[in-house]
């Protein structure tokens, strides 16, 4: 049974003493699918738990506590523990073992946090909002375009703890990429933090590119021949989903900037150069989202103007036809009063002449309105 398999029992105890009794380590299990939609494929909140030295996996000791103590005594390597939506009880033992601050633990368990970066003594706590694009055949007024989740990261001198919330944003592929590059992973927990930040921001780039395709489709519909009949609800839905994306991306700018510029004990200066690259990509995404917002505002205003013009055209047509119909209505109304002494009332040619006058009057009005573009 692997360290991760034992740890799923450990997290339910809520204290270090229980950790020593049941966290028995043994042979490593085969790789599992880490993109499970709900809980961990290992059957608990634990996704994976691996110790590294010089960027390479090392076999575990008798239990998790012994492994951590051995790494701390040798002052080499670190432990990477991955969790998915742990409960208070599941996370209590981990918090005690790594001496995590209660406020950070509360944020990690409860989730629904803004992107931020906080320092608690020797531990760095970072919150990232993950996003994914929801595929759809056709955008409607109720389509979900962007789905968000969260990744909380605890970084110490000899450990990294990742807590993931949401049905996407698996870090399994990222772990494999890092393990394929031992030189980068050997730079310590800060290298893992950078890889997570870079992974999250890269997802932002992919999502914004996909959202741009939806915006282009809506723009084409609005400026088509029958653009006034386009569904305005699609534009509002895109604006709402773009706002969700903005809430995930924009607040992350300050934490990434701090990681790239401010001296932090657990972040090696060499890693800060990598964070500057992440910051550049994040700025690009932020500017792109701001441009999308302005573009959607312009599209919405153009659509409302088209609707207003179409309504004016309809009102002009209705008015023109009402004027044409007013001619026979007036004439027939006059001769329908049934007075005895009305002009030409008993004349033989009175009826055909009245009909002719009505027809000529309607034709003149029709041609006049048609010439002026009202009909």
UniProtKB/TrEMBL annotation:
Catalysis: reaction(s): Mg(2+)(in) = Mg(2+)(out)
Keywords: Cell membrane, Ion transport, Magnesium, Membrane, Transmembrane, Transmembrane helix, Transport
CDD domains: MtCorA-like
GO cellular component term of the entry, any: plasma membrane
Membrane topology: Multi-pass membrane protein
Localization of this protein: Cell membrane; Membrane
Transmembrane segments: 318-337, 349-369
InterPro entries membership: CorA_cytoplasmic_dom, CorA_TM1_TM2, Mg/Co-transport_prot_CorA, MgTranspt_CorA/ZnTranspt_ZntB
GO MF terms, alphabetically ordered: cobalt ion binding; cobalt ion transmembrane transporter activity; magnesium ion binding; magnesium ion transmembrane transporter activity
Chain segments annotated as coiled-coil in the UniProt record: none
Signal peptide: none
Domain of life: Bacteria
Similarity comment text for this entry: Belongs to the CorA metal ion transporter (MIT) (TC 1.A.35) family.
PANTHER family: CORA FAMILY METAL ION TRANSPORTER (EUROFUNG) (PTHR46494:SF1)
Known function: Mediates influx of magnesium ions. Alternates between open and closed states. Activated by low cytoplasmic Mg(2+) levels. Inactive when cytoplasmic Mg(2+) levels are high.
UniProt name for this protein: Magnesium transport protein CorA
The species this protein was found in: Streptomyces fagopyri
């Amino acid at each position: 049974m692997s360290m991760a398999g034992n740890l799923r029992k450990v997290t339910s105890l809520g204290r270090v003493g229980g950790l020593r009794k049941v966290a028995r380590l043994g042979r490593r299990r085969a790789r599992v699918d880490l993109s499970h939609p709900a809980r961990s494929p290992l059957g608990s909140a634990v996704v994976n738990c691996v110790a590294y030295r010089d960027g390479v996996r090392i076999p575990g000791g008798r239990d998790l506590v012994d492994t951590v103590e051995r790494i701390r005594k040798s002052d080499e390597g670190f432990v990477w523990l991955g969790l998915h939506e742990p409960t208070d009880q599941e996370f209590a033992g981990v918090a005690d073992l790594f001496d995590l601050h209660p406020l950070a633990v509360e944020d990690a368990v409860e989730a629904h946090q803004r992107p931020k970066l906080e320092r608690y003594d020797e531990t760095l706590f970072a919150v990232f909002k993950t996003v994914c694009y929801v595929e759809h055949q056709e955008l409607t007024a109720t389509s979900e375009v962007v789905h968000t989740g969260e990744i909380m990261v605890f970084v110490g001198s000899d450990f990294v703890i990742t807590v993931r919330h949401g049905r996407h944003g698996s870090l399994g592929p990222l772990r494999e990429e890092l393990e394929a590059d031992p030189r980068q992973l050997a730079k310590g927990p800060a290298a893992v933090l950078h890889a997570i930040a870079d992974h999250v921001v890269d997802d932002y780039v992919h999502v914004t590119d996909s959202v741009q395709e939806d915006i282009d489709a809506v723009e084409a519909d609005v400026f088509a021949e029958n653009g006034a009949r386009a569904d305005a609800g699609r534009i509002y839905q895109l604006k709402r989903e773009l706002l969700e994306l903005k809430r995930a991306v924009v607040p992350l700018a300050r934490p990434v900037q701090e990681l790239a510029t401010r001296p932090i004990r657990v972040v090696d200066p060499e890693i800060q150069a990598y964070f500057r690259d992440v910051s550049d990509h994040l700025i690009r995404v932020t500017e792109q989202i701001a441009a999308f917002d302005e573009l959607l505002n312009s599209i919405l205003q153009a659509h409302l103007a088209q609707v207003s013009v179409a309504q004016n055209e309809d009102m002009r047509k209705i008015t023109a036809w009402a004027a044409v119909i007013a001619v026979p209505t007036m004439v027939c109304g006059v001769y329908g009063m049934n007075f005895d002494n009305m002009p030409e009332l008993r004349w033989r040619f009175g009826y055909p002449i009245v009909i002719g006058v009505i027809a000529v009057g309607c034709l003149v009005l029709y041609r006049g309105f048609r010439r002026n573009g009202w009909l």
